[in-house]
Amino acid sequence: MYAGALMEPVRGRMLSREGETAHDIGHQLTVATLVLARSATGTVKAELSGLAAKWIREGTYAPFLEIPDPERFAPGPDLVATPGIEFAQEMLAGRVRPAPIAATHRIFGQQDRMVHVTEGWSASLGAGSTRISRYESINGMNLHGWHVGDGVLYLFLPHAKGHYSDAYWPTVDPALLPGTTAKAGPPGPLAATPLTTKAHVGGVRWDARHGAYAMDFVSEDGSLSAKKSWFFTPAGIVCLGAGITDTSGQAVRTTIENRNLGENGRGTLLADARAVGDSSTLHRPRWLHLDHVGGYVLLDNAEVTALREDRTGAWRDVDTGANTKGTTTPNTRRYQKLVIEHGAKPVDAKYAYAVLPGASVVGTVASAFAWRVRANTPVVQALRLWDNTLLANFYSAGTVDEVSVSGPASVALGRNSLAVSDPTQLQESVRVTVRRRTVEVPFKDAFGATKVVSLR
User: Model confidence at 95, in pLDDT bands (50, 70, 90)?
Assistant: First the structure.
């Protein structure tokens, strides 16, 4: 949940339902939490009430107390006719303390999802593997869902709580979703729930403020492949890609950003302190900054295409379901795109950039000293933080700096401890050698969970 709304990557085909936004489902979850809180006691009651109060307080885009029927989408009779508003008013009258925003980094290994929460912003990833389908498109729903499981990076900002509910899905360019590496040209036919052919999707949690996530990506038609990593910190997310190879002949692009600025939206885009026009090819910029969104730092010598455009679409374009179909009313929204072009038939292409949600111009420039990329290859992608912590994603046996592994693994190394996971969820164990010491980390029935080893 973010600001009273369910996060986009866990909404499945419901993304395309005009009448059931993330805020609508957030209202339903709030009612369920209120009901549970009424039957609980002690600490559990306080925690549940605090969560509901937090979602109600933060949910200013679609205020809970102003909704006539917050249980309208209840899937069964359990919540129908539940006086959710009355329960909320009664709880708030009791001076319940809303739960605080707590820094959190959590990986859901059985879902191929993760969430990163800071005091100022949150982020989440949508991925797919041999375990979880890259998208769901059945019964006429989610008709533009080709890439929602290809490593979409969702940013949630406090001043844009309705970003994804504001006609985002019928108007966004579905081939250029933030975080994805995809081909230009018309997409292939939609399947119902297509799995990928790669098991390596997952990551490691270092602490509540840091973690790494990896994706061995292959396109649905099998022609495009890449190794993709995201490294999460309190200041932002470092995104690395390597081994980008395609045989289709279509142009390949990695999307840094594709932000919904709203209808007739504004916001200055700067590149190295200079204002950027509506359509520009930026030659090796060091950094970019978008008003009211944040900063972007280029960590290699990439050229970036910046395009600001109005896009029009109707909810019926993305949902024709018998009971869920959208209206044919056209919606127009303005988008800011930032794209790295890899060209046609790239072989072992790569990218490296950082996304800094909510950062100022000064903060964007200063972030260059917050981390160092230690590796960006098809074998290992790694980042060294300012405090010397190492975060690394290994796709096979390999070495980076003082860490070696016997097989695929995500690793976080600090001064006195080591955190390791198996993103493939297929190995019995992995041997990790650190500073001439070798430990064997068991992973049977771990389901992608992080294991912590003391090095004292």
Answer: confident
